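Structure first, sequence second, as always.
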C-alpha cells in the first residue's frame, strides 16, 4: 500500500506513470467514457481548511471512477470537537478505501497515515501541495513546456512566498530534473529541510535549482512562470505585513516580457493586484483554467494508480 504525502518517496518513473494514467483518463473523460476503475470505492475527504478545486475535483473524480466521495468538514465531525486524529484515522479507514486530507501541519497528515489501513492522499498541508503539482505538470506537457525525456530543457520561475507551493515545486524539480528558480523576499525563503532534500535529488536528476531574491533574474528566459498567494490559509493575521514585505514580487507584464514566451501557472485562488496583475492573469487565463481542470484528471490518475498498488 502506498500513500501520497509529499512526493519525496516517489520516483520519476512513478510520477510519469501517474501522469500517463491522468492523460489516458482525461481522454476517456472527454469522450464521455467513464470506466469504473474504482467501482464502489469509498473516498473520505477530510477538510480542516477551505477548498473549491480540491473538493470538487476529488468528489467528481471518484464518482466518475465508479466510486463515491464522502465530504467531511472538520467543523461537522467529532475531530473538530477534539476526538484524537489517530482514533479518527482508525475508524474512518475501516469504513472507506482511500482518504484525502487537507490539514495544517504535515505531522497531522503523517499521523493519520500512520494509523490508516488505507492509502492517504495529501490534499494540501502547510508544508506542501503535491496533487497540485501533478496538474501543473500535465499542463506544462500540454503546452509543450515539459517533456519527461528532456527535463533539463525546461526552466520554471516561481516568484513569491516560500510556502507549500514553492516547496512542492522544489521537490518536483529535484525528482524530475527540470530547472527551477525560486525568488522570494528576504525572510520568506523555503524551509531548509525542503531545500536540502530538493538539492539532494537534484544531484541525481541533474536539475539546477536556484534560490534568489530578485524576480527579474528568476524569470529571465524561463519557460514557465508561476506564483501563489502571499497570504496562505492560516496566515490571515500577517496579511498587512506580508503585503508590505512582498512589494516588488508581483508578476506583471513587464516581468513576463523577460521570459521565454512563458506560460503562466497559478494554483488558485488568485489575488489580482497582489501576486499577479489583472493583465497577466487574464492574458494567461487559458493556461490557468486548464491547469485547474487538470486537477480532476491528474487526481483520477493518482487514485487509480494508488488503487493498483493496493491490489498488487
Ligand atoms: N489550488 C487549490 O488547491 O485550490 P482549493 O483551495 O480551492 O482547493
Ligand atoms: N498557499 C496556498 C495554496 C492554496 C491552494 C494556501 O496554503 O493557502
Amino acid at each position: 500500500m502506498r500513500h501520497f504525502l509529499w512526493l519525496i518517496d516517489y520516483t520519476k518513473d512513478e510520477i510519469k506513470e501517474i501522469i500517463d494514467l491522468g492523460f489516458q483518463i482525461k481522454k476517456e473523460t472527454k469522450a464521455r467514457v467513464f470506466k469504473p476503475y474504482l467501482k464502489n470505492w469509498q473516498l473520505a475527504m477530510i477538510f480542516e481548511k477551505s477548498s473549491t478545486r480540491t473538493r470538487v475535483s476529488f468528489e467528481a473524480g471518484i464518482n466518475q471512477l465508479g466510486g463515491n466521495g464522502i465530504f467531511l468538514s472538520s467543523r461537522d465531525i467529532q475531530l473538530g470537537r477534539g476526538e484524537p486524529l489517530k482514533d479518527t484515522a482508525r475508524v474512518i479507514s475501516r469504513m472507506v478505501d482511500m482518504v484525502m486530507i487537507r490539514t495544517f501541519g504535515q505531522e497531522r497528515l503523517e499521523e493519520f497515515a500512520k494509523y490508516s489501513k488505507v492509502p492517504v492522499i495529501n490534499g494540501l498541508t502547510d508544508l506542501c501541495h503535491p496533487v497540485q503539482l501533478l496538474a501543473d505538470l500535465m499542463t506544462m506537457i500540454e503546452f509543450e513546456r515539459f517533456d519527461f525525456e528532456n527535463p533539463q530543457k525546461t526552466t520554471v520561475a516561481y516568484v513569491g512566498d516560500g510556502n507549500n507551493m514553492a516547496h512542492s515545486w522544489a521537490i518536483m524539480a529535484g525528482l524530475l530534473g527540470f530547472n527551477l528558480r525560486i525568488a522570494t523576499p528576504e525572510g520568506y525563503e523555503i524551509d531548509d529541510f525542503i531545500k536540502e532534500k530538493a538539492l539532494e535529488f537534484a544531484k541525481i536528476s541533474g536539475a539546477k535549482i536556484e534560490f534568489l531574491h530578485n524576480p527579474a533574474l528568476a524569470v529571465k528566459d524561463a519557460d514557465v512562470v508561476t506564483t501563489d498567494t502571499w497570504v496562505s490559509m492560516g496566515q490571515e493575521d500577517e496579511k498587512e505585513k506580508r503585503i508590505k514585505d512582498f512589494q516588488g514580487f508581483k508578476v506583471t507584464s513587464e516581468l513576463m516580457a523577460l521570459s521565454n514566451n512563458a506560460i503562466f501557472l497559478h494554483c488558485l485562488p488568485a489575488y489580482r493586484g497582489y501576486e499577479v496583475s489583472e493583465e497577466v492573469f487574464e492574458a494567461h487565463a487559458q493556461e490557468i483554467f486548464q491547469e485547474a481542470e487538470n486537477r480532476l484528471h491528474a487526481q483520477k490518475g493518482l487514485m487509480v494508480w494508488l488503487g493498483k498498488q493496493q491490489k498488487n
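Margin note: Residues 285-311 form the longest helix (27 residues).
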